[in-house]
Amino acid sequence: MDIPQVLAIWLHTVALVIAWGYYGILGRVVLPAIERSLDRTTQGATLVAIERRAVPLVLVSVVLFTVTGSYLLLVNPRWVDPAQFGAWPCLRWPWTC
How far is CA 92 from CA 20, 81, 85, 87, 89, in A? Predict the structure, then answer.
């Protein structure tokens, strides 16, 4: 395994952890805490402020996840065509199924 591939796997994993971690923490910790401690109008303003700060980080992680995932597909010697996996042939050539 070469260094660019290891770096791509590492960045791919970090991007996934950032995106899923943010929404996991938001749903399991932040939203219940906001609901218990603030009134409705303040909840909305607080959530908007949290999202405004988090959206750039989440967008960067989604772009990074997409780019590194595409790179990892291209350098995989076993990946020739997406039609070779599972139900893809039926989607690409429906008359063969």
Answer: 31, 11, 11, 9, 5
pLDDT on residue 76: 81
How far is CA 48 from its chain centroid?
21
| pTM listed for this prediction | 0.70
The secondary structure element, H or E, covering residue 29 is: none
Q: Express each pLDDT in 24-83 by its tens digit.
A: 999 999 999 999 999 999 999 999 999 999 999 999 999 999 999 989 988 887 766 655
* Rounded Cα distance, 46 and 14, in Å: 27
